[in-house]
Amino acid sequence: AQKITQTQPGMFVQEKEAVTLDCTYDTSDPSYGLFWYKQPSSGEMIFLIYQGSYDQQNATEGRYSLNFQKARKSANLVISASQLGDSAMYFCAMRERRTDKLIFGTGTRLQVFP
Amino acid sequence: KAGVTQTPRYLIKTRGQQVTLSCSPISGHRSVSWYQQTPGQGLQFLFEYFSETQRNKGNFPGRFSGRQFSNSRSEMNVSTLELGDSALYLCASSLITGEDSPLHFGNGTRLTVT
């Protein structure tokens, strides 16, 4: 069964520093997509970045990059040059081709301090 | 381009009542998914609609139902409300279905059942 694990309930990072949020997944489907979302305290879920299971290169979107290690089944999010506005909950999610359901991990609360 | 719009933003209902939540997807998006978010259970998938047909369903009781209209707008209905139904209900849309299709979420409807 598909499963997403985020082991860090909370993380702290100083402004302008980089931070890595961990995500591991489990699936038997060779075709799947991995996603990261940001949820500020206002509640909206903001799509950040996507990585396909067949992609050879790590995805990048501005200050966000996804460190994809397929053999380890990990898809860590790296945020470079953290900003105060990055303080939020971050969710890792996966969607298998077979089930086509997007399932989420439990999230990591990131707090950026000056 | 307007994002996903959910109405109302907040709702207060009493046990035993029913409630209908509305979602307007991003223009051109044909897939609409619904999620329930609670502190205890996290983000749980309710169902997905594509071209007015339910494609996928999560593990929720039959009190939770939905539908999609020809203009892709969707509604979710919860009958015989229970205290445990208090949650943030998130609607998301995507252009197509599939493991490489990111979901774009609305701001959610916060339902409180008293």
Question: Please, could you describe this protein's structure?
Answer:
The complex is a heterodimer of chains A (114) and B (114). The N and C termini of chain A lie far apart (41 Å). Chain A is mostly beta strands and 114 residues long. Chain A contains no helices and twelve strands. The mean pLDDT of chain A is 95. The mean pLDDT of chain B is 94. Chain B is mainly β and 114 residues long. Helix content of chain B is 0%, strand content 53%. Chain B is globular and about 35 Å long. In chain B, β5 (42-50) and β6 (53-57) form a beta hairpin. The interface between A and B is medium-sized, with 27 and 24 residues.
Features:
heterodimer, A: 114 residues, mainly beta, six-stranded mixed beta sheet, B: 114 residues, seven-stranded mixed beta sheet, four-stranded antiparallel beta sheet, 11 strands, 53% strand
- This entry's quaternary arrangement is heterodimer
Which blocks of ≥5 consecutive residues of chain B have pLDDT under 50? none
Largest sheet of chain B: 7 strands, mixed
Unreliable stretches of chain A: none
Major sheet of chain A, described briefly? 6 strands, mixed
Topology:
The complex is a heterodimer of chains A (about 110) and B (about 110).
Chain A (H helix, E strand, L loop, with lengths): L2 E3 L4 E5 L4 E3 L2 E3 L5 E8 L6 E7 L7 E2 L2 E6 L4 E6 L8 E9 L5 E3 L3 E6 L1
Parallel strand pairs in A: 2-12
Antiparallel strand pairs in A: 1-4, 3-9, 5-6, 5-10, 7-8, 8-9, 10-11, 10-12
Chain B lengths: L4 E3 L2 E4 L5 E6 L6 E8 L3 E9 L2 E5 L6 E5 L5 E5 L8 E8 L9 E2 L3 E5 L1
Compact overview of the structure:
Chain A has 114 residues and is an all-beta fold. Chain A has strands spanning 3-5, 10-14, 19-21, 24-26, 32-39, 46-52, 60-61, 64-69, 74-79, 88-96, 102-104, 108-113.
